[in-house]
Design brief:
Blueprint: E1 4-9, H1 14-29, H2 34-54, E2 64-71, E3 74-81, H3 108-116, E4 119-125, E5 128-136, E6 149-152
Parallel strand pairs: 4-6
Antiparallel strand pairs: 1-2, 2-3, 3-5, 4-5
Helix pairs in contact: 1-2, 2-3
């Protein structure tokens, strides 16, 4: 059983499928509940897709690294990229109660990630974005964990 894996992804959307398989293998090896594995993959898919779609315009050598780690009763996901500086914790939360026709396009992916994660931290250092999501493994897989902290540096 491994309690951590680290991968440098090719800057292509097809890399998300490979990452998804790695997360499933990691989750199975560590006996994580399948709903948790699904939510982990959903969060990583959203983060990586956003980075690839919006973060690398004009970047000659785009790089994305992902670390998934078990830490006591939490699962910690960290993404690091050399894309344009973007702090998702500073993005205003969408009004999910507003009628669909009044909502702006976009932003729901970050909302899903925030809902799923019990703690979200962002840091920008050395020309790299670092986003860490912590998931309480004792909380239900649907999100709504005990902590709702968001930090940025």
């Amino acid at each position: 059983m491994m309690d951590e894996f680290h991968v440098a992804l090719a800057p292509r959307l097809s890399a998300v499928r490979s990452l998804s398989r790695m997360v499933e293998e990691f989750g199975d090896a560590n006996r994580l509940p399948h709903p948790k594995i699904y939510m982990i993959n959903l969060a990583l898919d959203e983060l990586i897709t956003n980075s690839l779609t919006h973060g690398f315009d004009g970047i000659d050598d785009p790089r994305i690294e992902v670390t998934v780690r078990l830490a006591s009763d939490a699962l910690v996901l960290t993404t690091v990229d050399n894309g344009h500086r973007f702090d998702p914790t500073a993005v205003e939360r969408p009004d999910v109660e507003a009628p669909m026709e009044r909502r702006p396009i976009g932003g729901l992916g970050l909302h899903i990630i925030r809902t799923f994660a019990d703690r979200v931290t962002y840091e920008y250092a050395g020309g790299r974005n670092r986003l860490t999501l912590e998931h309480d493994l004792t909380a239900p897989a649907s999100g709504g964990g005990r902590r709702r902290d968001e930090e940025h540096r």
